[in-house]
Amino acid sequence: MGHPRAALDTEAVRDAYRRWAGVYDEVFGSVSGPGRRRAVAAVNALPGTRVLEVGVGTGLALPLYDPRKRVVGIDLSRDMLLRAKERVAARRLRNVTGLMEMDAESMAFADGSFDVAVAMFTATVVPDAKRLYREMRRVVRPGGQLLFVNHFAAEGGLRWWAERTLAPLSRVLGWHPDFVLTDLLEDPRAAAEILPCPPFGLFTLVRVPQPA
Predict the structure, then answer these.
(1) Which of 140, 124, 141, 123 is nearest to 132 (CA)?
(2) Which of 108, 148, 185, 206 is the most interior residue, by most CB within 10 Å?
(3) What is the pLDDT of residue 8?
């Protein structure tokens, strides 16, 4: 059965994360930490050095990358990027080669610019997750890898009810509480791995290899 979902657009996302920027680390940092660490560990284990982090936010993941990886981060929120730049400077993260304000659904990078692209807690935020997925595929070379860590809606129970109840508030929250895997992937069979992450399987790591 259909249910109301408030449409997101880039201005809604910017407004939401302008509000969240000052408290994001404190509010979301700990609960999202295990999923973030698992995603970066997966990136570090993959071949190739050119890494794109889509939706880099305040840069919480940046200190976790192997120093041999050359990391570029993009985000739509200027307020979040300012905090990421402060983190890079404070931690002297020389392997972070760029932090750019950019729309993840329309990136300025050439085709095949990266070996790996990772989006952590981002797919629920963008207005069109399938367009995000297509852009990530475009900018990653053949044989490269796409990784996502995200919250996906429950299939039933109290959490399912809560997520559907919150769906009309997407514009205020800045993300879709009722997001499902098929909102991102046309065919979930494209994923080579779908792994639940702590705490309580609230987030899921999805790895999608690019055809060689």
Answers:
(1) 123
(2) 148
(3) 47
Helices then strands, counting H and E runs in the chain, come out as: 6, 7
Work out the angle at residue 20's Cα, subtended by the Cα atoms of residues 206 and 22, and round it to the nearest 5 degrees: 120
Residues 90 and 38: their CA atoms lie apart, in Å, by 24
- 30 CB contacts (<8 Å, ≥6 apart)? none
Identify the residue with better confidence: 151 or 40: 40
Distance of CA 115 to the CA centre of its chain: 17
pLDDT category at 199 given cuts 50, 70, 90 is low
Return d(Cα 103, Cα 115) in angstroms, integer.
Answer: 20
- Encode burial over 14-43: b for 16+ CB neighbours within 10 A, e otherwise: bebbeebbeebbeebeeebbebbbbbbebb
Determine the pLDDT at residue 35: 86
pTM of the model: 0.80
**CB burial class (10 A; 0-12, 13-18, 19+) of residue 76?**
buried
